[in-house]
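Dear Dr. V.,

Thank you for agreeing to look over these. As mentioned in my earlier message, I'm a first-year student in the group and I'm still getting used to reading structure tokens, so any feedback on how I've presented them would be very welcome. I ran two proteins. I've put each sequence directly above its structure. The first is here:
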Amino acid sequence: MSGFKLTTLALALLLCPFLTGCEKQPTPTETSAAAPAVAPATAPPPTGTADAAADTPENKAIQRRAAEATTWGVPAVNFEMLFAAFKQAGGDWNQVAYWSRLPDWKNQTLTPNPDVIYLIPFYDTRSGPVVLEIPAAEGGSSITGSIDDGWQAAVEDVGPAGVDKGKGGRYLILPPGYAGNIPTGYIPLHSPTYAGYALLRSNIGTGSTADIEAAAAYGRRVKIYPYAQAAAPPETRFVDVVDQVYDATLPYDARFFERLNDFVQREPWLPRDRAWIDPLKTLGISKGTPYKPAQREAVDRGIAEAKAWLESRY
């Protein structure tokens, strides 16, 4: 029995350094002398570090609002990029971007179909109503699409599936708050934004070269012009972008809020969006004043956060 007790005691002494509770307990003096100067786990990072700057209440608010504003502003910014690509190609408001052949990889718009001729008339009603003429369907030729506001919400469908039922028509796009007379012979459309576009497809038949050329020629019968010139409409300008890289992809960087500011400066506030007026001010966007970017790193983190969230969902 005594041998067993000695063996157990020796084993305990050997294991003691590895067991909790059997170390030598330091005296109060030893504790104060040897304790390292380690901040509590909940303490903020040291002042002056990048992490400390990111952790301030103001920058946290900027990051949070940047993430939310990015998610909210995607349709508007995508529209701005769509028009910016047209401007780079030499186009302008109340003109038409079109692809004279079937699109390839250079068409960097959102989810284009590879088997139609695309036309995108861009309208701007700041100077008054704008007329968009859609030709009547003929045989296998027809225009399919919709007229959209700046938020990319459809104002009305056109063509055989739209309000003109394939008979063609003159669509009168009215600016926000328009209260003037509406002339006869037009299909009035009240756009909630001053600027917008129509996404139109000129359908082809078999896909032969002759059919593609015929679809492109038929598409060029679309017209857009200010209503003020309706008595003698000017010739519609078409800009062929088929051989250009038409990049309308969303920029998840500093350009995002530059484009969003362009949209906010031009367009009226919709009742649903008025809650964004003050949050956008903290990001440097305020109607009627120059754009003043907020803390760049916080904004970039917010944009990246929104991008990750959107990609995880869609």
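The second protein is here, in the same arrangement:
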Amino acid sequence: MIMLGWVAVIGLPLAVVFAVIFLPERIPKERTVEAIRQRLEDEESGRPVGAQRVVRSCHTWQAGLIFGRGRR
């Protein structure tokens, strides 16, 4: 009976940590940063929503957010 208690005390939290780290919920494609940015740019430019465009890199913009120099 004590062994079952130890399994519950140690095993259950380890299982939860494993699940959170290795089985994250996938973000839907329309909810990604790039999709939201494109939707906003389409609305501002008057293009039909969903129109094809060349995807540009956003590493500089993301680095600005990380280091506190970007727009929010």
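From my reading of the second output: The chain has one domain: 2-66. The mean pLDDT is 78. Does that match how you would interpret it?

Kind regards,
E.
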